[in-house]
Amino acid sequence: MPVVQDFLEHYHALKPYNLTHSEAMFVIHLIRYKWDESAPYPGYKALAKQMGVSHKSARRYAQSLEQKRYLRRQVRVGQTNRFDLNALIVALERHVAEVARAKAAASKIRPEASS
């Protein structure tokens, strides 16, 4: 299953911190700028315009994701920041694996319970 689909299905249940809908939209807009292995580097004004929010709101979403340790901003002098989402991807992969293990365990228990 692709990362984007996993993200859309599970962002609200990530641990240790779930994402708000606004933070999730911020991530989705960031991903639009992910062209290669490098961290995306859109400006806050561009993200804000695409999201229909103020650039201060876009900054707050980034700060919140950073506080949750899902985003790492790489400040670049005279250029837009780079946004490293690797920690979010790791948390997402961990959560998806936990859900899969729980489903597998439940499917093993279910047939025995009916006998």
Helix content: 55-70%
CATH level-3 fold name: Arc Repressor Mutant, subunit A
Q: What is the ordering of alpha helices and beta strands?
A: HHHHEEH
State the strand order across the main sheet. 1-2
Tally of individual helices: 5
Q: How is this structure best described in words?
A:
With 115 residues, the protein is mainly α. It has one domain (3-113): Winged helix-like DNA-binding domain superfamily/Winged helix DNA-binding domain (Arc Repressor Mutant, subunit A), CATH 1.10.10.10. It is built from five helices and two strands. The chain has helices at residues 3-10, 21-31, 44-51, 55-67, 86-113, and strands at 72-74, 82-84. A hairpin with a 7-residue loop joins strand 1 and strand 2. The two termini are 34 Å apart.
